Amino acid sequence: MADQNLVEDGPAAPKGGRGGADRTAPARTTTKGSRSPSGGSGLGRERDTSPGNPGEGPISRRRLLGTAGATGLALGAAGGGAGYAAGSASSSSSAEKVTPLSSLGAGEVMFHVKHQPGITTPLQARGHLVAFDLAAGSGRKEAVALLRRWSETARRLMAGEAAGQDDTDIARDAGPSSLTVTFGFGHSFFARTGLEKQRPESLDPLPDFSSDQLDKTRSNGDLWVQIGADDALVAFHALRAVQKDAGGAARVRWQMNGFNRSPGATAHPMTARNLMGQIDGTRNPKPAESDFDERIFVPANASPDTSGDPAWMANGSYAVVRRIRMLLDDWEQLSVKAQEDVIGRRKSDGAPLSGGAKAIETTAMDLEKTDAQGNLLVPINAHARITRPDQNGGAAMLRRPFSFHDGIDAKGVPDAGLLFVCWQADPLRGFVTVQRKLDRGDALSKFIRHESSGLFAVPGGAGEGEYVGQGLLEG
Fold this sequence. Notes:
The protein has about 475 residues and is α+β, with helices and mostly antiparallel strands. The protein has a domain at about 100-265 and about 275-345 and about 380-475: 2-Layer Sandwich (Alpha-Beta Plaits). The protein has helices at about 60-65, 105, 140-160, 185-190, 230-245, 290-295, 330, 335-345, 385, 430-440, 470-475, and strands at about 30, 110, 125-135, 180-185, 225-230, 250-260, 315-325, 400, 400-410, 415-425, 450-460.
């Protein structure tokens, strides 16, 4: 739960038809129509018809998102809160005029990109994390066929099309809704497929931490899939399609469901809050920073001799996945002041405690500033202090979590917290460095519990006509 903030991968250019999207461009969102069993229909662009911008063309994602903490597309005036604009059927033609989708449903993230989608894509409202183990008797051949199926299904669903002949129609009436599907490989995958020599050193198991209370049955796995969307049915539809595609080649090891604030739920785009009520993600690395790619992605020229990574990991990243239970009953017994001291930031707006009354979320934190009695305004064990890159040798990771709530037990205690997902070029320099520091004295540690864990190698995006992981499985 490091003190960092998620940002998008760049502006989007709305497209006007099913075949018009640039499949080689960086991950971004375009407007699309609702899906149908035959692959859906192309629709016109969403237009900003608000008073100040009458008919000035498509709404850019940069204008809609505005700040680094946005969770996805905000609803524009064209879509409104109702979800769909009014439409009509032609009286002189048998061809039906399709009603345009709202901006929420029309958002599309590209599948064929340099880096897999779901890494720098803005936070989505719904998410599923699922790990698979290859079935007994399945090996490299079955893995190739499975990744081919999964990649084609992901491409279709992310474009707002039906999954294939066995589509369940769960998301029949919806558009892409910014769906992303991301694939990764666990440590055990390589032995099961005879590819041990291609296993990255960075995929060595994570060390033990004092705060760990890990359930091994809900940790690790041969294969990992991350699904995100701004509509719950679209996300579940993708989860069901991925599970069905696994067939007899792989079985589910564990699966977790998450959520974030829905796009458009706030008056303006802002950093998300977690279930503790804290603004969570203020200092995430930003793609505009000169060293962003170096910190988050394996170099394009990856090789064991240069980066220490195999060539098939070029443009990829490593995902650390942790199910972190929040002890909400204990946390909520603290005063707001005590909660702020644990985090090091104001609960109301995320401003650093050292910033004064006029400070805002992005105000620089002064770690040496004291009050009249000489006490540090940001306590020495505050979470935001410990997780700062300049307190960890420059270590940084791109956090992209989901919250979760899996019910209330017989004692009335909520099983809730954070599905922590972070991305980095080197997990030893990223997650492990920061977590070891947190392990030695983070004030937040007594209010959270790490219950499951996984580390996965996520290769770069698939090119046109390719499937994810092809460089590994056929290289």
